[in-house]
Amino acid sequence: GIVLWRQLLENAPCSTPSFVQMFEWLYPLLQLGSDSLKTSLLIIECTILLDPPAIISRYGTGIVSACVTLYPEVVGEAKVLINNILLAVIKTVPRDQWPDLTPLLHVLLKNLDEFSDYSKVLTTNINVLCYLILLDLTYFNNLIASFNNKNLLKNILEIWTSKAEHFYQMEQHKLSMIALLTLSTYNPDLVSHHFVEIMKLIERAVGKCTDVDDKGSRFDCILRKHSSPDDDFITGGETEDYKRRKILEAADLIAKMDTITFLRAKFAELRQAVGPELFTKLSQGVDREVTDKLSNYLA
Length: 299
Fold this sequence. Notes:
The protein has 299 residues and is mainly alpha-helical. Helix content is 69%, strand content 2%. The protein has 17 helices and two strands. It starts with a helix and ends with a helix.
């Protein structure tokens, strides 16, 4: 029955009152050890993508509460599915309509051991942090401050920058770079302590998500892919859920933001925030190959 429920959602072209009402039946299925737990988590994500305002306004608090209970107890794929639910809320619901996500974000950040090895858990954890930074930096800063742990952000950044080389999607590299640069321009002290690692991450990300055309001009591969997508990219796929995800992907901020233009603007802001003299001094500590590549990208 629950598999059929998921298939029904995936093939539904639009929401109905029945889909919203059926959501109440999910809560008893969100039990640790349940054979249907992973499918239930997928149904939550699918339903949010189908009708974000209706689901979150009615069930948002319950979804967060259930995920808070489950998160410390589950591992691997189930943790990724919970992170995907969190991302679905953050990306599809207007900021002023978010439920109180703080309890779930606290649980996520308290489980920093999940960041220790590269995995899909790490990727989705960092994705959550990136979107929080880009959609509401004040919210992110307040979240970090609420832990009353001055080393928390430092620990997160050490893991973030050290594991970034293992990201396998160019979209992940670009998202990570944009979020980290945005955070850095508002936190000059952060830049001073992690400058070398941040520059390496930026250089790697730009190399992954840009290329050079036949005329020698550098272009953003992600921006080009989404600027004139073919019909299959927007409307292809086997299910309506697939279409919704592709449309959401095409509307994402990283699909609309030019990497080089953003990099030039943020580097100017970063230099001003840190101070030209200190910026030059910090740059001297970066590997020459990295600085040469960055200079070439910014030329």
